[in-house]
Write a structure and sequence with these properties.
The protein is an alpha/beta fold. The chain is built from 6 helices and 9 strands; from the N terminus they run αββββαββαβαβαβα. It has a single domain, classed as Rossmann fold, CATH 3.40.50. The two termini are 35 Å apart.
Length: 272
């Protein structure tokens, strides 16, 4: 059933454009400004694509954007989906499968997160090197379709080390503060309690957020190299530094950091 749904989505996309993207990009909350740097060839609203959900989150515009970022052919998801919106994990990750079947060779994922690391401050960028999955469901649960990937995908080398190193070099040349870290994925939509932040810090988390991990799991299942970059929107550790956080503040801070993130992504794709 899932494979058939992916094929139906592909058929409609191919009816609307013959553009062939090489790289896929998922844009997180407040990070849609990267689309302004894409020389757009075609835009397709999610509601025009069979089986695509619609994003219900503020600042997510719900469309696929095909075009060139620099000289690189890309397809960007301007708007992603979250489990807390009421979608199943298979719905949340459905677009990743479609992008892979469109022929992308790698996927770049962005997000906004809270810092669980005393050395990582709001407004800074973090390259995700690993994750801890604390979400309540798994997008691979159920009967496995071998046309997508193996029953038990290994997660050892999930985050592409070569892209992380190239991104670090790009950031350092531009004099950007850059970190590496472990991302903890939770269900949301509420933010965490101080006791939960303490727990997440103690188990090895540097960042916490409500997205990304399901998409990464499915990308790994399908053999896609993965690169994840996160903008820190608020400090969650140490506990004494926690302040109340509003979504408007998160979006505003993400937009301030977006030009640095866009520069890294653009230069990274130029180098791979």
């Amino acid at each position: 059933m899932l494979y058939k749904q992916v094929q139906e989505a592909l058929d409609i996309i191919r009816m609307k454009t013959d553009f062939q993207p090489k790289h896929g990009i998922i844009l997180g909350t407040g990070l849609g400004g990267l689309t302004n740097q894409i020389k757009i060839v075609k835009q397709i609203a999610y509601h025009e694509i069979p089986h695509f959900p619609l994003s219900t989150v503020q600042s997510h515009s719900s469309k696929l954007i095909f075009g060139y970022l620099g000289e690189q052919a890309v397809v960007a998801m301007a708007g992603r989906f979250h489990y807390y919106e009421g979608y199943s994990m298979k719905q949340v990750t459905f677009p990743v499968r479609v992008l892979k079947m469109l022929g992308i060779e790698r996927i770049i994922i962005s997000n906004v997160s809270g810092s669980l690391n005393v050395a990582i401050n709001a407004g800074e960028l973090v390259l995700v090197r690993d994750h801890i999955n604390l979400q309540p469901d798994n997008p691979l649960r159920g009967i496995n379709d071998d046309r997508f990937g193996p029953r038990f995908p290994d997660m050892l080398h999930t985050y592409d080390r070569s892209m992380i190193e190239k991104a670090k070099s790009i950031a350092q040349k531009a004099d950007y503060t850059i970190h590496e870290g472990v991302y903890v994925g939770l269900q949301g939509p509420n933010l965490e309690t101080p006791a939960e932040y303490e727990y997440l810090h103690r188990i090895g988390g540097d960042l916490v957020g409500m997205s990304t991990v399901p998409e990464v799991i499915v990308a790994r299942h399908m053999g896609l190299p993965v690169f994840v970059i996160s903008v820190v929107s608020n400090k969650c550790y140490p506990i004494a530094e926690i302040k109340e956080t509003k979504v408007e503040d998160v979006i505003a801070l993400a937009r301030q950091a977006e030009p640095r993130m866009s520069h890294i992504v653009k230069e990274l794709l130029h180098s791979v």
